[in-house]
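Bumping my old thread because nobody answered last time. Still need a sequence for this structure:
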């Protein structure tokens, strides 16, 4: 079936084709005060003053206690460190990590880097993820699971309480991959933040970006300290590597970008929301507003169109290409579509319908996308 849906006619870039993503980070002028501070301190890494300031400001923004935010050099490093600090490396007795099939490849790769064999779980069509109760129906499998990695798809928040109950009941550590959650966390942190570590990405394509970078948020102070240790060669008060670890520290230059981004983030957020409101109006006029996804349901960095089938999604993408409009199947066919996970074991969530990853199509979005009203 060919679709004639062509959103975006009221949204145009200054010139040329419309890219699906056109990140905008702080200008050189905004960065200069922070770069001058680096020149003065001559501290470039190893938990410098800019990284400490960033961590403190993020704690305040997310309404969590001091030292609850540990910064990292990428979202993947943050996720790896959270796994190592929470569950440690895989063991012979517990070699498995349950991850959703519907996620970006970094989730599965982080589990592999910690020695786990990913088990791909299908996701509910309604929430785009699996729930704690879904996994409790797999008691034999859980006996060999060392960690579970729920994902907040496109920033849709994962509630901590059900997973805290799961953790207490099974003894299996939980780490939440919340890569794109930044803007939603600022609105309702109490729902998604707590003792279970949540890893964020500050990649340029996220609503809050520093080019690369990320952090782990946990209200458990001892766990936060272990995350910091796992990001710094396992060092704790000496140059002795005491635990499995990586070099995942955030450099001062990355912190400079993040701080400048934070200074003006509310304005950037407002611009992204304004673009989405135009999409809403256009989709409502076309009678298909119930197929559009954006804030506050998901992160403001995404505008998603939910197609009825993979075939319709492919036809839509082809039609958009003809009009010079880029689009993206952000998660592709899911982890199972990647060669490295093709033979991974799988479990099917027993619900009415499982999500078909390719039916969600990303549409163009950027804070400076010109809006014609």
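Sorry it took so long. Here it is:
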């Amino acid at each position: 079936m060919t679709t004639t849906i062509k959103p975006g006619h009221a949204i145009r870039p200054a010139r040329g084709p419309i890219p699906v993503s056109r990140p905008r980070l702080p200008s050189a002028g905004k960065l200069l005060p922070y770069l001058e501070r680096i020149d003065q301190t001559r501290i470039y890494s190893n938990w410098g003053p800019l990284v400490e300031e960033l961590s403190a400001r993020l704690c305040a923004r997310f309404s969590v206690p001091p030292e609850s935010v540990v910064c990292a050099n990428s979202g993947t490093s943050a996720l790896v460190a959270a796994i190592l600090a929470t569950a440690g490396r895989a063991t012979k007795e517990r070699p498995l990590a349950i991850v959703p099939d519907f996620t970006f490849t970094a989730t599965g790769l982080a589990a592999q880097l910690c020695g786990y064999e990913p088990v791909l779980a299908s996701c509910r069509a309604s929430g785009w993820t699996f729930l704690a109760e879904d996994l409790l129906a797999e008691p034999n499998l859980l006996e060999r699971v060392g960690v579970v990695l729920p994902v907040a798809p496109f920033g849709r928040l994962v509630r901590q309480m059900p997973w805290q109950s799961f953790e207490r009941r099974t003894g299996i550590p939980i780490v939440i991959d919340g890569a794109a959650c930044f803007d939603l966390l600022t609105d309702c942190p109490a729902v998604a933040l707590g003792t279970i570590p949540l890893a964020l990405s500050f990649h340029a394509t996220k609503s809050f970006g520093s080019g690369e970078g990320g952090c782990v948020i946990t209200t458990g102070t001892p766990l936060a300290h272990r995350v910091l240790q796992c990001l710094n060669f396992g060092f704790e008060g000496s140059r002795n590597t005491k635990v499995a670890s990586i070099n995942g520290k955030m450099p001062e230059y990355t912190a400079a970008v993040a701080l400048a981004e934070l200074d003006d983030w509310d304005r950037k957020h407002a611009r992204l929301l304004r673009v989405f409101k135009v999409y809403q109006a256009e989709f409502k006029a076309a009678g298909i507003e119930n197929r559009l996804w954006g804030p506050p349901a998901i992160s403001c960095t995404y505008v998603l169109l939910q197609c009825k089938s993979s075939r319709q999604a492919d036809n839509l993408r082809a039609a958009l290409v003809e009009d010079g409009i880029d689009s993206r199947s952000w998660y592709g066919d899911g982890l199972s579509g990647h060669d490295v996970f093709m033979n991974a074991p799988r479990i099917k969530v027993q619900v009415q319908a499982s999500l078909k990853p390719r039916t969600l199509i990303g549409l163009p979005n950027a804070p400076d996308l010109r809006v014609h009203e």
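The mean pLDDT is 92. Let me know if any region looks off to you.
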